[in-house]
Every structure is written in structure tokens, then in C-alpha cells.
Hints:
Helices cover 50% and strands 15% of the residues. By secondary structure, it is of the alpha/beta class.
Amino acid sequence: xxxxxxxxxxxxxxxxxxxxxxxxxxxxxxxxxxxxxxxxxxxxxxxxxxxxxxxxxxxxxxxxxxxxxxxxxxxxxxxxxxxxxxxxxxxxxxxxxxxxxxxxxxxxxxxxxxxxxxxxxxxxxxxxxxxxxxxxxxxxxxxxxxxxxxxxxxxxxxxxxxxxxxxxxxxxxxxxxxxxxxxxxxxxxxxxxxxxxxxxxxxxxxxxxxxxxxxxxxxxxxxxxxxxxxxxxxxxxxxxxxxxxxxxxxxxxxxxxxxxxxxxxxxxxxxxxxxxxxxxxxxxxxxxxxxxxxxxxxxxxxxxxxxxxxxxxxxxxxxxxxxxxxxxxxxxxxxxxxxxxxxxxxxxxxxxxxxxxxxxxxxxxxxxxxxxxxxxxxxxxxxxxxxxxxxxxxx
Length: 395
């Protein structure tokens, strides 16, 4: 039985990993999964060395508080790779940690795959890209530019399209979701997505909630629903809601259902923005690093910093234009965010222009069956290395 080691350190990576596991099981009748993941991958049968999703952070300084966890987990991974030697190691996003995982596997001669690779093609450098290529036998590229970048550097890169296209599927219609939320069809539903990391709740949620409060004062029929990504985040979000006296409902539900039922969202700038674009729901995105991380980033990247961080939300990055309203760092204010959302809710022309951009992006992503394509490439890699006789299923 082949053993597949998958490392994912964030909630989004956990979801992508779970879907990949499901597809791999369809291609191989018997397969064992080990590695690092979250609840979604655990439900798919992964034997986990650790779950890093609760300590996921961004920035340069923020991960230090979890350094002991990262070090002990990496030691555990290296020991497991030496002792059990899986047939392939797959890294999903989570660059800082997963580059070390792949490096350790490569030293042991274990085939390595990067699925949702470091965005050196977008934010980084050729030198950074070369480091990825050095330790990776196969890169499953989800963006055309990503594939072209790594292909030029001599990597074995395969363009599979973006997996989020297949993953972004509501399981009930707009009317059902709004009824469950006690929201009438004539109500304006504003949804707040404050993020899936404690750091995001601290830095971004206050502005998002204040902006929602401002919108309520201007839209008499509006209702606010706040999406809680994880159980452990709920107390902090509830405390902020109480503090701002915002009349809002907190829910832990299928985010795709919530997006599809919303008229406009106020959100952080993660994968959630791309899900909004695919579901055709307008959004206003914000993102802020801690002041120290921001200063370090500017110092490291120098004059190229502002040029490289032109856009923060994935739809705008991919469309190479400010299609959806977004605000970064010092540009974030309650008034700016609420005014941008108000324009999307009250100006039909502004709203339709954005929806047209979303249609363009949906065609561009070309992600149909991308996860199954990824699974087939991984099965092919396993066969090429003659690790096990294949026993294929309904691929």
C-alpha cells in the first residue's frame, strides 16, 4: 500500500488537502495518508503528526510566539520521514514551513510535490523560485503565470487550473440560507468575514465591524451576519461585537452558502475573496500587517515593495487591476470601507461592472476537475518511481 505524506498548515490548505485525498482514493484503491493537516484531512483518514491550523499566522514577527510548536513538529516530521519513508511528500501552500519539509524529504530521496506553490512568480524573485525548483520534483501549478515562471526555471511543472473552482459550491440556494438566517428577501444582507487567524481578528475585525455599523445607519433594511471560521475564534469576535454594540448574528456555517446569499461582504483578503468572485457576490477587502512586520517588509523589499504589493485580494491580483474595492495597511479606515460597500449596494452600474469582472476571472481560472488532474499527476509520479504496483480505480 503506498503512503502519501501531505503537509498543510492553514485552514484553506486543509480543505484543499482533503479534496486531494478524496480524489487520490478514487484513483488508487488502497492508499495510506500521513502528515500534518487539520480536521478536514483528518476526516478523510490522514494519520496526523500535528495540526498547525490553530497557530497559523502571517508576517515576520508573529510566528515567533509559536516557534516551539514549529520546531517540535519539524523534528517529528523529519523523524517520521527517516523511519517510515513515505512514497511521496506533498506540500500545500504554507511556504515558510513547507519548504523545510520538502528539503528534508529531498535529502532522503523521497519524491516531492508542491501543490499551490510559493508565489515567487507574483511577489518573489527568480532566486526564490530556483530554491523551490531545487527541492521539488513536481509543481502542480494553479495559475498560468505560475506554470510559465517555474517552467522557465526548469521545473517539472504541470498547469492544472485553480482547485477553488471545483471546491466553491453552495449546498443550498439563496432563499434557503436567508430563511435559516431570518433574513427576508427584501433585506440587504451584509456579511462580515473577519478571517481564520487570531491575528486577523485582532488587526482587522474592529474596522470591519465598525464599517458594518456605519452601513446599518445608512441602509434601514440591512442586516449583518458575521462568519466565524473556527470555534476558538468565537469568544474574541463576540467580545468585539458586544463592544461595538453591533446588532449582528454570528454563525458557523457553510461559507459558500453565506456568500451566495449575501448582497455584499466586508472581508479579509484571503482565499475568501476568490470564492466571492466565483459566486458573483461583491466584496470590499482589507488587509493589515502589524506595524513591525510592515516595516520589516518595506525594508527587505525596498523601493519595489509598493510595486509588488499593488493589489491584496486575489481577484484583483489575477485581473491585474483594482476591480473590487480593497484597502491595505494605512489606507484602511471605517469611512473608506463603508463608502465602498455602499457604492456596491446602491449603484447598479458600479455593481454590474464588478460582476462583469468576476465573469472574466471565472473564465480565466480554468479550474474544472483541477483536483482530479492533480491526483492523476501524483499517481503518475508514484508509478514513475516504481514504488508500488498501481491498482487504479475510477479515475
